[in-house]
């Protein structure tokens, strides 16, 4: 099924389909099988929010030895679709995702350490070693850019199996980056779930959406008009030069009590991020895609088609909920950094997306059912 992204109704159908995609759909059933309430120290769980089913960016624990005054975040970045398209930028993206996930839950971006875990096929194949070298280069470059040291890591080769007809098959080059970061105030962890009606929604970070190796492309393919820019490096988000500065500013806003909720843009892009925030808080919201005009400089005015703005994937970006009395202070903290007011939380039980020439609305019930397969509680 090909989705025409000029059709707003199709955009709504596409969002529901992405929420049900295996890369995005709820993993709560699996998570609940394991002990994630270690010694009662868990502050933020992998699934939390109003009904404890909203996906969070990282787990936060407050060890008893710290007396509740200090905690730490555990996060990760992983995307095998990116690894198959471009091992270098896949590594860059994994490092950035792990770090921004930790920052989203209150970790200090200047106190984060990393672990790497490479998984590849037969190391005797030249293409396998090339992928490893490219990924290692990406790990090195992005760790320097983010001032985050590696404290451990591992690699795993020969991840292969026999396919149809006895053909030897290899997994895509896959890199898991884990991050651990200090959370100075566990009591102020925002979480990704929306908190109150009438709050503003800001998109912070350099917004450079790509569709080539996205979940959207995996589900629907890349639209014909963008296939020329959806191969090689253009398919995978690259390093965001101002990411570390943006994360520092966001952490400062959290420390100042200006952030009510925060969620990173990753699989599924902006559309999935705001839908997951609505699911976690069981709260409506509206997003205006025309607020992103000029975010990606191109000739001809507003250069971002609604589908690319909604489902394109990018590094370095997060959605932030800010209460009305704190808007001025929040914007002041991002005066020299990318920060756009893109929407607000609302009283209705739906997510409304404005596209400039129209838009679409999806009920909270539809979002929850697509994401988790269960009916939404009222």
Topology:
Layout: H1 8-19, H2 28-31, E1 42-44, E2 47-48, E3 54-55, E4 59-61, E5 71-77, H3 80-85, H4 87-104, E6 112-119, H5 126-146, E7 150-156, E8 160-162, E9 168-170, E10 174-183, E11 200-204, H6 215-220, H7 243-255, E12 261-264, H8 269-281, E13 284-288, H9 306-311, E14 318-322, H10 327-333, E15 339-346, E16 350-354, E17 359-363, H11 364-372
Parallel strand pairs: 6-7, 13-16
Antiparallel strand pairs: 1-4, 2-3, 4-5, 5-10, 6-10, 8-9, 11-14, 11-15, 12-14, 13-15, 16-17
Low-confidence stretches: 1-6, 228-233, 298-302
Number of strands: 17
Strand fraction: 15-25%
Order of helices and strands: HHEEEEEHHEHEEEEEHHEHEHEHEEEH
Sheet/helix structural class? alpha+beta
Residues in helices, as a percent range:
25-40%
For the record, the CATH architecture stands as 2-Layer Sandwich
Number of discrete helical segments: 11
Give your account of this protein's structure.
With 378 residues, the chain is an alpha+beta fold. It has a single domain (8-372), classed as 60s Ribosomal Protein L30, Chain: A (2-Layer Sandwich). The protein is built from eleven helices and 17 strands. It has helices spanning 8-19, 28-31, 80-85, 87-104, 126-146, 215-220, 243-255, 269-281, 306-311, 327-333, 364-372, and strands at 42-44, 47-48, 54-55, 59-61, 71-77, 112-119, 150-156, 160-162, 168-170, 174-183, 200-204, 261-264, 284-288, 318-322, 339-346, 350-354, 359-363. The strands form four sheets. The protein has a seven-stranded mixed beta sheet with strand order 12-14-11-15-13-16-17, with helices on both faces. Strands 1-4-5-10-6-7 form a six-stranded mixed beta sheet. The longest helix is centred in the middle third of the chain and has 21 residues, at 126-146. It is globular.
